[in-house]
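Deliverable D4.2, example record:
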Amino acid sequence: MSTTLVTHKQTPTEHDILDVIKNRWSPRSFSEESVDQETLNRLFEAVRWAPSAMNEQPWRFIVSKLGESGHEQMIESLMPGNQPWAKHAPVLITTLVKKTYTNSGSHNGAAKHDLGLAMGNFSAQATHEGLLLHQMGGFHKSKIIELFSIPEDYEPVTIVAVGYPGDPDNLTEDLRARELAPRSRKQIEEIVYYGNFK
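Output generated by the structure prediction step:
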């Protein structure tokens, strides 16, 4: 078994950035150590202060803790490739958006963008707290809608595993290799254009 947990991965940045951005990464090995309620409250306090169009705050969250109500249902909703490792995460969160503006009832085209901003706050606060998270799009939305009785005006967007670092040796060989692989990103020149679209 590993004697050293992977709490950080080398991030070869070309410019100085904040540690909570640099140290964020998406593991698959989680300790089953619980995350206390006060820590969760701080994560969602960070979410609460994210910006949103018209200050709509369209984000919603269903939180399930390991061994408690909702956890097995979220695992059941995941794609098969995510289930074996995600089931050990002490906290699973389904993120949702309200699809329409409360005041006008019109479609909120910025809802998912705003949820992304909120999860950026969540991620930064989690990293500051020594937590890791892995956001997953690989799940069956229809199962979440059915199992959690989601109203029609809300859409599930991701399921997020949250917890403390675990032992990579508990993963399958292929997932362990991915867990320990170096991080990489596209160059700035590949994603940023000045004056016109490339």
